[in-house]
Predict the 3D structure of the following.
Amino acid sequence: MSEKIKYIDASQFEKEVLHGGNVIVDFYSTECPPCEALAAKFEPLSEIFGDDITFIKIFRQENRALAESLGVTSSPTVLFYHNGREIGTRLSGSIKRSELLDNIKLLLPQERFSQLLSAIQPITTYTDILVIGAGPAGLTAGIYAAQAKLKTILVDTQLPGGQVQTTHMVSNYPGFAKPVEGFMLMHYMSEQAKEAGCQFRVAVDVTEINLIKKYIIVDGIETIHAKKIIIASGCSYRELNVPGEYEYKGKGISYCATCDAKYYQDKHVVVIGGGNSAIEESLFIAKFTRHITIVHQFDKLQANREAQEKAFASDKISFMFSHEPRAFIKNDDGSMTVEVENLKTGNRSYITCDGVFIFAGMKPNMVNEDLQNHNGYIITDEFMHTSLPDVFAAGDIRYKPYRQITTAVSDGTIAAITAVRELEEATVAV
Ligand SMILES: Cc1cc2nc3c(=O)[nH]c(=O)nc-3n(C[C@H](O)[C@H](O)[C@H](O)COP(=O)(O)OP(=O)(O)OC[C@H]3O[C@@H](n4cnc5c(N)ncnc54)[C@H](O)[C@@H]3O)c2cc1C
């Protein structure tokens, strides 16, 4: 624990924070994975900047009234104070080192900030197995590799859990008679990986990946060299890049029916898309909503026949074929307006609704041209070998027909067992 960090309670806030000059305050909680991830960055930064800035931690659960009076409602939340005034951007949730540095920069004169920053020594770490991505595939690979007593590091740009983290309920992962919350399932997996001995670097910026020389650089300072690399970076929603989409993401625009359909009980929503996921997810959303308008760019649906038949038979679903969204607008009363263009006539019209779901497909995370791939999805053999020696791929990032938690977990298992065996064989051969 850094000596440069002060632990205070509400009674000391005025003296230590409001009259403390340059101060960074971290409201933390116990049993809070994002708080642990933040601590791994907060402590080293306090060693570097601690003579110029006071680093303070306040236990939120025991100082609730103070937290609430400051509008702090979740842990961790980090606030930056200069002479009693809050400045910069409040940070919460999965906080990156680069975001902390952006705010620290505001507290110090430019020259002093650069001087202290330049004193940071780069770190070099060596590991047997490096796993990029800590979703179901990466965590499983980590569990197998660490249980085989190999040094294993898992790196993720977010907190561990992957896409399942945002999945409301999972009912098809074996071992749970009743549906399990996606968040809890991933909590169990990451605790198991920690227990096995995996080291984590999470909520980090991955600033360089060199698969040929087998190293990555994390947060611009730590170079991790590995004997074997397993890429398990998954995929994410494809965005439309239509005006308003970015601003209202999570505030009226959703990409996840399982997560958000329940908020639209007896409401009208617009679904953008006409492929399998758009139609299957619309059938799920229809269990909650009063009405769904499906806006699709083609003049017929691309979904499988069964899903199409169900959608056409539903009296809750109507279709606007040959239309594309041009803008998403949030109205003063909280409703949304979708501006759409008829691709055949060029005419524009407006649909007012309560929310919008976008299902425009998925895209692979971390496209790497050094690897043989199909539209960015990495091609592997049955042992999860990629086209580069000592580099494996597992989970949704692979080019494969089915993307599920079970298939990701299976890929992670195969990649790790193969990597472990190859390392053991190499040791015996020496
Ligand atoms: C809304 C929704 C509901 C779903 N429901 C189910 C279900 O009920 N049952 C089921 O079986 N499947 C379900 N799935 C599919 C399932 O979530 C995926 O198949 C599974 O999560 C894939 O696991 P993964 O580890 O390959 O990838 P992911 O879960 O995508 O994890 C990849 C991880 O890699 C990290 N990452 C990305 N890029 C980098 C980088 N450059 N450096 C470091 N880290 C990086 C990401 O932050 C992420 O944590 C659902 C998917 C969605 C989107």
Notes: DSSP finds eleven helices and 26 strands in the chain. The domain at 5-118 is CATH 3.40.30.10 (Glutaredoxin). The chain has a mean pLDDT of 94.
